[in-house]
Design goal:
Elements (H helix, E strand, L loop, with lengths): L1 H8 L1 H11 L7 E3 L12 H6 L8 E5 L7 E4 L1 H6 L6 E5 L3 E5 L5 E5 L11 E5 L7 E2 L8 H26 L1
Parallel strand pairs: 1-2
Antiparallel strand pairs: 2-5, 3-4, 3-6, 6-7, 7-8
Length: 169
């Protein structure tokens, strides 16, 4: 009887441990521009290269409403900075959250006059399953670290699963 109490009583603890290891596989929120946020003072190409973006991640654009905006655009619109066409989505609240729902190339610009040409634009290539790369062929400085982190999480998750199997089978 005590053996069953110990086995079943530890079940919630083991589940908590398992789910904490899965955190590495969940989506992440990225504030565009980090602490500098979305404004004309940031190199967004460099910012975007610091991260690996995956389907399910969220880009958060924080800026002063009316001074900036964030448009998701086509590649041609990104390159020309002419938002008279090629706009896929408009974000103008000052605290916009854009969920990356597809494995594809995403392009973002600020459509306020001169801002896009001044550098308020970036593109990312979003991949499924935490394996994204950036449009720039140079690998992200954190990409090896992220891969090792994911492998460690997978190993810990498998280890915790084996413990659960041993306890309940």
């Amino acid at each position: 009887m005590e053996d069953k109490i110990v086995r079943y009583g530890s079940f919630p603890i083991i589940l908590t441990i398992c789910f904490s290891f899965l955190k590495g596989a969940t989506s992440e929120n990225y504030t565009v521009g980090d602490d500098e946020q979305w404004n004309s003072e940031v190199d967004y190409v460099s910012w975007s290269q610091k991260y690996n973006f995956s389907v399910g991640d969220v880009l958060v654009f924080k800026y002063s409403k009316g001074l900036h905006n964030a448009f998701e655009v086509t590649e041609a619109t990104y390159r020309s900075c002419d938002t008279s066409s090629g706009v896929l989505a408009k974000y103008e609240t000052g605290d916009d959250q854009v969920r990356l729902t597809e494995s594809k190339k995403y392009w973002f610009v600020c459509s306020v006059d001169g801002h896009c040409l001044g550098g308020m634009r970036f593109g990312i290539n979003v991949k499924a399953g935490n394996t994204s790369t950036h449009l720039d062929p140079t690998p992200s400085p954190k990409s090896g670290t992220v891969y090792a982190f994911e492998r460690r999480n997978l190993g810990l998750y498998l280890f915790a699963s084996l413990i659960l199997l041993n306890l309940f089978c």
